[in-house]
């Protein structure tokens, strides 16, 4: 039987796109508490089923596939530009394909304005009317209002007309930034991308007997299984070590490990990898916010996922991506060289502390890859000192392997500028072998 939380999510998912949602209405409709309804709506917002807009409320939107995450809905545009809806409220769930800046003559503007686009324009009423007739939504900059005719037209076509106080250039930059951030999120591998779902996994229940573990082992040859209660919530994990020399008529709850470490579908793969290495575990149950079992993730899943993510082309670049591109190695003496670019600096124009840590980490990562075929997870990074380094300065980074074991590495890192020592750090890393 599904939980109240799941029932609310299923109810929201079944609502027509564009429906308005409120905590009080859902609590009354499904006979649940307002607190339960609120938590479920927040979960639906996280998974992209609904969007909450100031002065509008919460509406059901079309859930986007991850590969199309760079496309924004009009509801998201309102949140980005802090806008208000003047008309066409029922179309807020729709997705825009492109945006057009209306800074040209009307005839030329309409060549680029098509169905599914968003025209960013000032108080040019004729342009607004023509855009709506062409199937495009409107974003009016400068805080201007529009005519009642345009508002009625927007309602008839279900195309939003949005107004915001920013100028056209600022609005375009804000939307571009939002799309760029979405591209970065698109590339981050999360547990949801790789875990094995409930239907394809084998589990035991807390009231099963130890004999059930033996039967399942004979069938699958797996040595560890999640343990659930009859509400499908994770209550433990049982492994071969737990059942050695145990009577086969004992219940699983008597021998299992309680309060197991779990992951959520939204957890990043890097975080899951760190947890599994740090805790020395081979399998983690995947759960939702109510601790209901969704599937499992194994160490092999994590390794494959990390390898796959490293082969993906980078579309939205982070600071780490830039550092990886700019860091050049000299195989003869083990040094890494890079120039301090403007993106690497802080507000006073010197090398950022966080970028310094990223440079050290990447140099260690590349050094270890020459020695071991695997990935590293930082266990500890200690920066002993760091001098101010200006824009345009060339840095030489020298990692020295102090200890290298099968699962552990200790690296001393020195950073030089014009032969002067400007930074020193110590890195301890756990290794994930492929």
UniProtKB/TrEMBL annotation:
InterPro entries: CBS_dom, CBS_dom_sf, Diverse_CBS-Domain, DRTGG, HotDog_dom_sf, Ser_kin/Pase_Hpr-like_N_sf, Thioestr_dom, WH-like_DNA-bd_sf
Domain CBS: start-end pairs: 195-255, 256-314
A Pfam family that the UniProt record links to this protein: 4HBT
Source species, domain of life: Bacteria
Matching SUPFAM superfamilies: CBS-domain pair (SSF54631), HprK N-terminal domain-like (SSF75138), Thioesterase/thiol ester dehydrase-isomerase (SSF54637)
Keywords per UniProt: CBS domain
Protein's name according to its UniProt entry: Transcriptional regulator
